[in-house]
Every structure is written in C-alpha cells, then in structure tokens.
Amino acid sequence: MTDGKLAVVGLGSIGSMALWQASHLSDSVTGFEAASPAHGRSAVGGDTRLFRMIYRGNPGYYPILQRSRELWAELEAETTTDGHPLLGRLKEGSRIYTATGFSGAGFKTATGFGEIAAPEALGKRSFEGLESARPQRFN
Question: Domain ranges in the chain?
Fold first, then answer.
C-alpha cells in the first residue's frame, strides 16, 4: 500500500461525506471505520429518512441544511444512473470492489448483500444472477 494524501478515520454520516467530497479533489484518499455498517450506535436505521430544514431553531444552519439536501441529491445521481445499486469490481481484474447506491434500502438488505460482497471482494467466491447490480452493466 502506498501513502495517501488523506485518511478519513470514522466513516459515519459526516466522515463518509467528507471522504466522498475529498475523492473529488484527490485520487488518493482512504477511509477507515472500526465498526460495522449500521452498528448499534449508528445514526442510520429503518427504511425511510426524514430531512428536516430546521436545526434546533438555529436559522444560521439553514444554508448548510439547504446545501446538504443538494449534495444528497448529487450523491444519489452520481452513485448510479439507473437507480440500481453497484455491487462488484469496477472493472474486470480490478482490486476495487464497490457496494453502493442502495439508496435507503441498504439498511434493509445490508446483511444479504454484505454476505455476497465480503467473499467476492476477497476473491473467495463469486455469485451469479446479480447482473442488474454489477457495474459492468454500464459498459
């Protein structure tokens, strides 16, 4: 492994968004997370999200909340163009494995897709019948 320009430690809501934004500025960013996705102290859960435009009555946060809403829409658009998740290697033979774009359904399906992603990413097993989730569908 080579040295990166930036390491983000903690990939919760803010850390993962910081990592995403940093990836637009550099091709040398890495994220580290000690806990598993949707762990017991995680801020995510359930199948729906509520996006409030008020933050404890502090009007100074409104511009940040407004920009956050725009960035969530940008992230969703950037993740997939067809609304289906990406699961698998970005290119044949690539060391980069992605599991993203589940857009709210990720929590509900995380255990099943995680059970697929882990052995595939480690090169221990591959699963058939997931063509609609494979990044190669865009080739």
Answer: 1-35, 44-125
**Residues whose CB is less than 8 angstroms from the CB of residue 100 and which lie 6 or more positions away in sequence, other chains included:** 79, 85, 86
Check the CA dihedral 9-85-128-95 and report its sign. negative
Q: What pairing do the DSSP bridges indicate for beta strands 86-89 and 29-32? A: unpaired
Look up the pTM and report it: 0.49
The Cα 4–Cα 137 span in angstroms is 30
- Cβ contacts of 56 within 8 Å, gap of 6 or more: none
**Given a cut of 70, is residue 43 above it in pLDDT?**
no
